[in-house]
Amino acid sequence: MNRESISGSSYTGRFAPSPSGHLHFGSLVAALGSYLDAKAAGGRWLLRMEDLDTPRNVPGAAEDILSTLEGYGFQWDGEVTWQSRRQSLYREALERLKGAGLVFPCGCTRREIADSRTGHVPGSEVRYPGTCRHGLAPGRQPRSWRFQVPEGEVFFPDRVQGRIVQDVAAAVGDFVLQRADGLFAYQLAVVVDDAEQGVNRVVRGADLLDSTPRQIALQRALGLPAPDYAHLPVAANATGEKLSKQTKARALAGLRPQAVLATALEFLGQEPPAGLEEASLDEFWTWAVPHWDISRVPGRHSLSAPEGFG
What we know:
- The chain is an alpha/beta fold.
- It folds into 2 domains: 12-85 and 233-304, Rossmann fold (3-Layer(aba) Sandwich); 87-152 and 174-179, Glutamyl-tRNA Synthetase, domain 3 (Alpha-Beta Complex), CATH 3.90.800.10.
- It has 9 helices and 14 strands.
- It has a 3-stranded parallel β-sheet with strand order 3-4-5, covered by helices on one side. It has a 3-stranded antiparallel β-sheet with strand order 6-7-10.
- The protein is elongated and about 70 Å long.
């Protein structure tokens, strides 16, 4: 892995939007937090398009995201990485896991798994019951490949949320690495990409917090290093839903970047000086990078979005 060494330490952060919609205030918060954390440490900030789920990608959305980020003054290091162009890396990782006996073919449909959820807690993820872990039933054909989750808890220190502990086997069970349609799952792709790109700091939204133990379990299985993690509070609308295209979150394109960025700083617990929202973009970034303090970020999973953005 190629890593940039600065003053004896290496810092590589990344921002990874999905091109299935536009940038909104919630995605800007994640971008801003990850960018400032990398740049304040003198490191690199990588931009990755998580476009694996090709049926959901919206034509032109990726270009809109890139244009909006540029309009807000974000400057990424190196070329943009596109997951859809890295299939060979994910296939190689899956073959390594197959060779080690750590994955198995599964013939279950989503409906069958959903129907097996006895004692399921509403709003939580459905746990895979382990139907095919010890072999396919007679007459069943493999549909997907699942990671055989080891027993025991996974724990890690999150720089915002504190100590996180999860029993992955009990919470979600053996999870999919390659879907029935042949597409590779996010969990495998992100682990492979982070290691291959030398990412050692991940700053992202707390909506991804529950999936991090799965990624750590995969990193261990593949012999890959785990980055340091920080999960920022997500912006929620008036009904408590995370801002997204589905909840009709307002697009950032066409808004005054300085004012939105200053609002995002305040959302993240920072204390921008009066008038920063009226400064030039260069002046905003000149102040924001050296004054970034992740210890000020609220250790909450979600916060209400400012008025006008929900």
